[in-house]
């Protein structure tokens, strides 16, 4: 039996699209299966385990860095406050002894 439907026949076009859709679904399922296998192998590989150790070490270093940075920030604030107090003391001293400095030529 011959197919006398032309390329403009909508039923023929739908059948072709359904066939193509089945092929694409099958390819997607195969790709998903392969992806699952790759993820499973990748997570258990020596390279992945080594990277996980490095990530853990990097997180610990980051935590320590943040703690040190916090301590340094606290100390910096203290030093800035001390510097401001010292500056005020010097300014007060200069104002208090301004006449003596002028007489001495300073």
Outline the secondary-structure elements.
Blueprint: H1 10-44, H2 46-96, H3 98-104
Question: What does this 3D model show about the protein?
Answer:
- It is a single chain.
- With 106 residues, this protein is mostly helical.
- The protein folds into two domains: 11-44; 45-106.
- The protein is 88% helix and 0% strand.
- The N and C termini lie far apart (119 Å).
- The model has no long low-confidence stretch (mean pLDDT 87).
Task: Describe this structure in a few short sentences.
The protein has three helices and no strands. The chain is mainly alpha-helical.
Keywords:
2 domains; single chain; mainly alpha; 106 residues
Q: How would a crystallographer describe the biggest sheet?
A: none
What general form does the structure show?
Answer: elongated
List low-confidence stretches.
Answer: none
The helical percent reads over 70%
Mean pLDDT: 87
Helices and strands, in N-to-C order? Answer: HHH
Briefly note the structural class of the backbone.
mainly alpha
Strand coverage percent: under 5%
Task: Supply the number of structural domains.
Answer: 2
């Amino acid at each position: 039996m011959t197919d006398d439907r032309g390329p403009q026949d909508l039923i023929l076009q739908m059948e072709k699209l359904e066939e193509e859709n089945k092929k694409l679904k099958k390819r997607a399922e195969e790709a998903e299966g392969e992806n699952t296998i790759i993820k499973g192998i990748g997570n258990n590989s020596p390279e992945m385990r080594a990277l996980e150790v490095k990530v853990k070490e990097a997180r610990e270093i980051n935590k320590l860095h943040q703690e040190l940075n916090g301590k340094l920030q606290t100390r910096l604030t203290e030093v800035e406050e001390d510097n401001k107090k010292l500056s005020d003391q010097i300014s007060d001293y200069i104002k208090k002894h301004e006449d003596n400095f002028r007489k001495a030529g300073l």
